Amino acid sequence: MQESIESLTDQEVQMIKLILNTGTVHYSDISKSIGRSRKTISKYLDNVEEFLQGYHVTLVRKRNVGIYFEGDTMDLQNVIQNKKYPDTPNTKNERVIAILSKLLLANYPQTIQQLADSTFVSRSTLESDFKEVKRTLAKYGALIETTHDGMQIIASESSKRKLMSELLTMYWGNTMYLENKKGEMHRELKIPNDMRSFFGKDIFKKVLSALDRFQQVSPLHFTDYEFQSLAIHLIISMERIIKDKTLEKSEHPVKLEMNTVSLINILESVFKVSIPQYERQYINIHILAAEGEPIGKDKLEKADSPIQQNVIHEFLTSNIRNHDEILLRGLTVHVTSALKRLYLGLNLHNPYTEDIKKFFPLAFNNAIDISAKIEKQFNITLNEDEVAFIALHLEAYIERQKSMVNAVIVCSTGLGTARLLEQRVKKYFSDSIQINRVTSIQDLKNRPIVEDLVISTIRIEVPGTPVVVVPPFLDTGSTNQIRSKATEILEDRQNSGSFSRLLDEKLIFFSKEKEDREQVITQIGEKLQKLRYGRKGISKAALERESLASTAIDNIAMPHAPIEFVAKPCIAIYINTAGIRWQSNTVNVVFFLAMNREVQTQIEQIYKYFNDVLENKKLLKEIEGCVKPQEVLKKLGGDLIE
């Protein structure tokens, strides 16, 4: 019997497509395609191998040759490429979009069974998918009304538009860039059948054509997400205007920008309609977000706005302890643009938020801290999607640093001597050592050492951090000392025991009663205080971080304690088989991470090991079934991948 494709994850389907299209691939090829580790890919291949048993196809993994299929792959290709059932959603994400689409369009109630039949899945699978449907609806103030006839969405015109925008954004990755006869590039948006019924036959073509015309006569240069946001808004608004379903009148109309007037004239010419004044105001907001330099000088700067490149850059430099110029430059541009959009009421959808939370927990944790500081400084609220975008920049920095040793140069003499030493170190160790800063003994009192290595021209002792004393001109002997110590530091990073050393059986808790997020975090915080792991206020601080961006993924949550509330680093574990209400999620296992500077040098290997825990669904299920602390410690203490 052939196993249904719904048993595969999106990444596993992507792997099969890659092998079918390429023939023979290697682990490195798959890793580039889906962004997962070799261990995770190996697990995915095991699942694919089991799935293939019903298709007369064998998965071959041969050393020094590669990974490929043997047998007749025709049936497999038909299923994967969806040739037999072109309208059938293959993955959970596609099913959620299909369900939302059907509910938004339906003029009568839909039953669970009808929705299950339309998506070709079992009723139990549909009920599982429906949890995500409800979460998406809740984000936009929409409700599901359930009667004996079935379910219907109850929402305002504004909420319906936001939902449509969410669905379109999920598919925006299917935008193609095509060259016309004049050699000019233009965009073409490919939308699946489920979404086409929302709009007229040529609505997408007309909007993108109008935007192409506008860009030819306008001085504006849209970033990808500015273009995406404007295009999606126009696709929805023009369709709804044609159907006479317009937005509520604005109470505070503002003068339209010249660029807005130009775009409106083009749209009215293309669609042969008159755009109402209050619809024009919404278009004006998008134009305001794109006007001026990408970093927002021009008008906002003249209005004494805090959204200026130099202000943001200075803020990030002061609030991100470890960084390089690439990180600062990238974040400066992104945060400036993000704040500008948020001030104007525009949110940016991030389709990878859940994956970022799951696979980059260290970066996401750091992004929450930075976002909290941004909110306090600029009085603007960042949602989870915005936090996840910041996390991507931080993860890129972390990846750059994995094969690098972070070092600080300490010098007692003039700045010129220190800079000479810095240049020499960069010359000889550009591929292995990152100089975070150059400082003096006096400055160390204000900013303690958190780097992996100290390179100093004077004899100093730093508890827990290796020091190499060298002359400013860096002779051969000193170079060898630095190289030896850097190699030793990189080798130590491979030790995964750093994670298990943070576990304590006194910090593993069990419950069988229905609870909520606040109850559980409060209980953990009180226990940490009692055992002198945490300081007063740790529970409240962790809850505040969770309100900024939830750390729940599937049935797991990973709340973090801010560093100033941690007396001794640890990881507490809370297991509840009855379920814990965690905003729109229900979780069963909570990992409460409390880190401080004592584990600064091991933080990457701690999170690397934790990543393996999060990716191992079998292990997480086993932990959920544990009833004694010793069982949990045993599960987490050994090799995570069988």
Explain this structure.
The chain is of the alpha/beta class and 642 residues long. Helix content is 52%, strand content 13%. The chain contains 28 helices and 16 strands. Strands 11, 12, 13, 14, 15 and 16 form a six-stranded mixed β-sheet that branches. It is globular, with a radius of gyration of 27 Å. The chain starts with 9 loop residues before the first helix and ends in a 5-residue tail after the last helix.
Which descriptors apply to this entry?
28 helices, 642 residues, alpha/beta, 13% strand
Poorly predicted runs are 173-179, 292-304, 638-642
Mean pLDDT: 80
**How would you sum up the global shape?**
globular
Distance N to C terminus: 28 Å
Biggest β-sheet description: 6 strands, mixed
How much of the sequence lies in strands comes to 5-15%
Number of strands: 16
Quaternary state, please?
Answer: single chain
- Number of helices, where a helix is a run of at least 4 consecutive DSSP H or I residues: 28
Proportion in helices: 40-55%
Radius of gyration, in Å, reads: 27 Å
Specify the structural class. Answer: alpha/beta
At a glance:
The chain has 642 residues and is an alpha/beta fold.
List the helices and strands and how they pair.
Layout: H1 10-22, H2 27-34, H3 38-51, E1 57-62, E2 66-71, H4 74-80, H5 92-105, H6 112-119, H7 123-139, E3 143-147, E4 150-154, H8 157-170, E5 175-179, E6 185-189, H9 193-196, H10 203-217, H11 224-242, H12 258-271, H13 277-290, H14 298-302, H15 309-319, H16 325-343, H17 353-359, H18 361-378, H19 384-401, E7 405-410, H20 415-429, E8 433-439, H21 441-444, E9 453-456, E10 467-469, H22 476-492, H23 497-500, E11 508-511, E12 515-516, H24 517-530, H25 538-548, E13 556-557, E14 560-561, E15 570-582, E16 585-594, H26 603-615, H27 617-624, H28 629-637
Parallel strand pairs: 7-8, 7-9, 9-10, 11-15, 12-15, 13-16, 14-16
Antiparallel strand pairs: 1-2, 3-4, 5-6, 15-16
